[in-house]
Structures are given as structure tokens and as C-alpha cells.
Amino acid sequence: MSTTFTVAAAHAAPVLLDRDATIDKACALIAEAGGKGVQLLVFPEVFVPGFPYWINLYAPLDQFGLNLRYREASVEVPGPEIARVRAAAREAGVNVVLGVSERDGGTLYNTQVHIDEHGELLGKHRKLQPTYAERYVWGQGDGSTLSVFDTRLGRVGGLACWEHTMNLARQALIVQGEQIHAASWPSLSTQRGMEDSFDLQVEAMSRTHALTGQCFVIVAQNPWTQEMVDVMESELGPQDIQPAGGGWSAIIHPTGTDVVPPHTGLEEKLLIAEIDLADIQFLNLLIDGKGHYARREVLRLWIDDEPKDAVVERGTIPGEADR
Q1: How many domains is the chain built from?
Q2: pLDDT in tens, 73-129
Q3: In the prediction, which pLDDT does 9 show?
Q4: Residue 132: domain span
Q5: What is the three-class DSSP state of 143?
Q6: DSSP class of 222
Q7: Catalytic residues
């Protein structure tokens, strides 16, 4: 059985707030990836309909109209837009991890959607903790979607942006046997105060997870284009806090070294590489984060994977019958 596969990161920008056009672009990138022999393609954070950069740049009350537009441009999972992506994945024979803003009732979630090469929806991961101003756009995910999925390439999981600072969330994926990690990010390296630190943070967390998790890490980040700036400023007015630019994508080996070196800037491209999961077995001789190097008699992780629904029916609560 082959342990060698071809994977890619989509270093590409959405058509901000245009859900249908961005789905078109995602499907085109999936088709391009399939034509180049890619078996797994990872997209940036909330690629559909794009990251709401304005949340950090304008007063909250001024954003209300744009946030309503963002809600309308978000997608249901499953739903008609995801069905189009599933069809594109099936036609191209590509596994896909797509970042979307998911609409579920009256709440939005920052979600990674996992789709296999047959177009089957494997599941989704909702970002556990939206960061700072993100909290008035997206709700919190729960442990029921902190998952790793079986694919023909191996076990694939993922996190979004500063979720990677949550060491226990990363460990939750590691103990599930994650072999390939989809790291989805926006671009913030041109934001005032982040110019010298953001890309370094992304790089540090990506290399750390690769080594501590003994997994390949595919980092997908979108450039922040002038077209996206114009969409935002046309409604909210000029700003000088975050000019166009940025973007940092790469593919990292389990040793923490480069498989594909970082690609930065506005040029859109697919970062494509061949990876060999046998490299993980070699590294496991030295370190196994879910096995002999975990020291489970000293340190253990408790994960609550129960969905936190608003209503719990009587008789469905674990241990209820014993009370």
C-alpha cells in the first residue's frame, strides 16, 4: 500500500462577500489541483466568503450593515454551495479542506469542511474560540467537531488561525492519530502592530505542531488584495490600519523542516508537494506524541466531545439513569 501522496495549499484570495463567485473560484482551484495530480487541497480560513477584516479596523456599530451582508454570504453545511464543492471534488478526485463561514440558524461559525475524493462530506470542524473581535461575528465551536478524519491519504485534521495557540486542542488531534494537518489562516501581516510578528507566529506554530504531532502541516493563507480592501472601504470608508499585501503559505515536514518553503505575497498559486507518510514512522522511533512520549501515567488529556445543543432530551444525558 502506497504511503506517498501529493498535497497542496491554495495560496489564493476569495472574492470578498461574493459567495457564488468565491465558490466558483474554489471549484476552479479544485479542478486545477486535480489536473496536477493533487490528492488533498487545503484552503485558507473562511475562504467562503472571505475573512471579515473590517472587524479589527472600524468601530463595532459602524460595521453592522457589513456584518449583515457577511451573514447573508455565509453558507449552510451541508447546503447548496457545499454541494457544488462536493461535486467539484468528486469530478477532480481531490480531497478538500475548505474554510467557510457557516450559518446555522441565527449563529455563524468559523468552520473547516472536510470532503473526500468521492465528494462525500466527511465532517466539519468549528473553530473552538474566535479571537478578539471575531467573537461578535462567530459563535464558539465545541468538542464534538474537534475531529480527525480517515481518508485515502491517511488521517486528516485541522485548526484555524490562533486555535493553534490552544495546545490542548492540538494535542486532541495528535492523540487521534493525525497524520496530515490542515492549518487555515487569514493574512494579517500588514496590520499595524503585526508587521514583524504575524508571519513568525504562523511559522512557529506550524513547525511546532509538525514536530510535536509528528504530522505534515499544510498551511494555507490568503493574500489581502486591493480588491478586498476596496470592497470593505466602499462601505466603511478609508482606513490606514491594514493595507493590501501579506499571505504566508507553506508545507511543513514532521521534522519541522520545509517540504515547500513559505510562499508570501499577492501572487496566487497552488503550493504542491509529494509527501511520504513513512517519514512519520521513522520519526516515531524517536518521539510519539500519542504513545511512548506522551507519558500518560503523568499527563492525560480529557476531551468533552458531547455536542452542546441548546436542548437535551430527558434520558439522553450520560449517567442520568444512575441518579
Answers
A1: 1
A2: 999 999 999 999 999 999 999 999 999 999 999 999 999 999 999 999 999 999 999
A3: 98
A4: 4-322
A5: helix
A6: -
A7: 45, 127, 161
